[in-house]
Design brief:
The protein is built from 17 helices and 3 strands. It is about 75% helix and about 5% strand. The longest helix has about 35 residues, at about 410-440. A hairpin with a 2-residue loop joins β1 (about 165-170) and β2.
Length: about 450
């Protein structure tokens, strides 16, 4: 069994490295080679996925793992086929990377908790089915760029509702309970916030418009701060500062934003006790290793134990890390799959970000350009905060790793984000084809 785990671990790392290489090789070849690269990625993804579940089944002996694996393969295959059937000009590399991250999430969650992995799978199927309509909507609804206050008021309303009736988790008000379903509205408000800023700057970048947009953005951040969701507040703040800079090209705005953000961080440290705890455990987790520093210390132990090539599935002790399925899933991944595999996951996330920025640069309309750019900054900031908190680069912010961490709201909102980006890409490709046909005619 140990030989099987070791051999499978090294083979998965090799296949993952090849997949990651192809993700970046894609950007430097012609259209025909791009199709071949995407097909190879699909084969590698299903092979890594199958190999992982062979090891999981051999280590657990649970027949439900076979059924669960089969359900995942059926969903992933159907999702890839249907997306390409309905949208001929879909970005296949972006779709492949999304499915690859989902596979990694399913594997590590199955190893940590089958029940949570099964619930995550149901939410993924639901999210994938619903968000498949997003590109269709984007292609046919120009009114999306004309309703900024719908996005702004709806976002503020959701955050205010959380502040008054939200459930508290680890010192922060994050979710609203509706029956047996727990929803984290801030995950969806992030996207509404990007749409609000995009529509406002699309209409005008005058000083009056900038001041008005900044005031509404500040309200979003303040409500999150009062709810003690400082991770969400930081994501919105960083996203807005860079969207403002790109929309106006004014370096003064960028400098003022970064300066005010630094001041706000110092103020948050002085006002909130749980922020002080996180900062102290970040600075020196060994000082109180049995209490406040326990989570960070266990995370560092896990990453250090895993080394470059990991311990292998079921060979580590990731369950010792508190909240490992959510905030610290990257530590579990690093311990059992190794730093090389974990770095490949980060590079895949980077590849998604590069695709977002390329789509933003290719769009002609300012609304679409700002939307793609804002969503790219939002996504990259969330990945940075999630991983940075785990490896002790920054204090932990309680942010989930998109598509990999456990959490229904996080998965659904990330599907929406990728659906919007796909819609913009498809819209651009369709326009290019029409222009080519007109020129040929």
């Amino acid at each position: 069994m140990n030989l099987l785990t070791d051999a499978g671990r090294y083979l998965m790392i090799l296949l993952m490295a090849i997949y990651t290489y192809l993700s970046f090789r894609y950007f430097g070849v012609g259209e025909e080679k791009k199709k071949k690269i995407c097909s190879r990625q699909n084969r590698l993804m299903f092979l890594i996925h199958a190999l992982s579940y062979v090891i999981i089944y051999c280590r657990t002996g649970e027949e439900r793992m076979i059924l669960f694996y089969g359900a995942q393969v059926f969903f992933l295959f159907l999702y890839l086929v249907l997306y390409r059937f309905f949208y001929r000009n879909v970005s296949r590399v972006l779709m492949n990377n999304m499915c690859m991250l989902l596979c990694v999430g399913f594997v590590i969650l199955s190893r940590l908790s089958f029940e949570r992995a099964a619930r995550q799978f149901v939410l993924v199927v639901f999210s994938g089915a619903v968000t498949m309509l997003i590109p269709f909507i984007i292609d046919r609804m120009w009114q999306l760029s004309k309703i900024p206050w719908v996005y702004g008021i709806l976002g503020l309303g959701l955050l205010t509702a959380v502040y008054f009736v939200g459930n508290t988790s680890y010192g922060a008000q994050l979710s609203i309970q509706i029956g047996r379903i727990s929803i984290q509205p801030s995950e969806f408000v992030k996207i509404l916030f990007v749409l609000f800023a995009s529509t406002m700057f699309y209409q005008s970048t005058s000083l009056k418009q900038v001041c008005l947009t900044t005031a509404v953005a500040a309200l979003h951040v303040l409500v999150l701060v009062f709810s003690r969701d400082l991770g969400g507040a930081l994501i919105l703040f960083v996203t807005y500062v860079f969207m403002l800079f790109v929309a106006t090209g004014n370096w003064l705005y960028l400098g003022a934003g970064l300066l005010s953000g630094s001041g706000a961080a110092v103020l948050a440290f002085r006002l909130f006790s749980h922020v002080k705890v996180r900062v102290s455990s970040w600075k020196n987790p060994w000082a109180d290793i049995d209490n406040t520093g326990y989570q960070m210390a266990q995370s560092l132990f896990a990453i250090g134990t895993g080394g470059w090539f990991g311990m292998g599935l079921y060979e580590g002790m990731p369950r010792k890390i508190p909240v490992v399925e959510k905030d610290f899933v990257f530590a579990a991944l690093s311990e059992e799959m190794g730093a090389v595999f974990a770095l490949c996951v980060l590079l895949i996330c980077l590849g998604c970000f590069v695709q977002f920025m390329m789509i933003a640069c290719s769009m002609q309309a300012a609304f679409y350009k700002l939307t793609a750019f804002g969503l790219g900054i939002l996504y990259s900031t969330q990945v940075f905060l999630a991983v940075g908190g785990v490896i002790k680069l920054i204090p932990s912010t309680g942010v989930t790793l998109p598509f990999i961490s456990y959490g229904g709201s996080s998965v659904f909102s990330t599907f929406i984000l990728f659906g919007i980006i796909q819609g913009l890409y498809i819209l651009k490709r369709d326009e290019e084809e029409e222009e080519t046909h007109e020129a040929a005619g």
